[in-house]
Amino acid sequence: MDEKEKRKQIRRYFEPRKTPVVLIAMAIIGALGIWFADEANLKLISFALTLPLIALLVYRKMRSRPSHAQVDEWLAEDLGRIPDLALSKLDLDQDDLVQDPLMVRGPVLLPTNGVPSDELLFRVQEIGKTKKARCAIHHVTAILLTDSHLGAYAADFNFLRNAFLNEHAQEFHYNDVVSVSLREDSTNLSLESGEKAVHNEEFRVSVSSGENISVVVNSSYFRDLTGADEDTSNVENVVRAIRKMLREKKQG
Questions:
Q1: Rg (the chain; Cα; Å)
Q2: Fewer CB within 10 Å, N side or C side of the chain?
Q3: Which of the 8 DSSP states describes residue 67?
């Protein structure tokens, strides 16, 4: 499959499929007419009323969407370019790194520079009693750890167009990093279950100058819109890896 066809398939995967109410109403009236009408002409007219909905369903079947697994595979392939982009933007070689790049990704559903509003798409998959949401736009950050400093490459990735937007790169010496965290913005323990009502979860690296690297990896807006929660376990692993490096460099 060529690149152009792949992007068409990805866009088709995310595009919402809503059946016009008028077609449903016509099909119901037609079905009732076929069932109850006595005259052959009325039955024929009733059958004709069902044809637009049948045609729409056949058209959708012919334009089948790629599977969830296929879309996941394509996204992984696209995001696999990030390490090379990060190395290039930070003017580093693979040999400069003390470990593989650390990746943090967050869903984007709010207006973003360079992204048309009609491309802020998502699709929800129900898996048993849980839901998984896949988004067309992602904020991605790659953390590169070297012997002397921490580098970060960040961008907004448009999966529909295979395009990285709003790119920027930063470098910080380890001694300048004052904190690294997965921060929760939450209310008090007011729920009956005793659990926290978490509104947002944000990955953040802060430095003494006041600058920071941050990615919102989960939010109440995302949950309210999709009914799903983002898995942040990978982000926790990234936090642990950076903290380990900071301890080694600051104690060494």
A1: 25
A2: C
A3: P
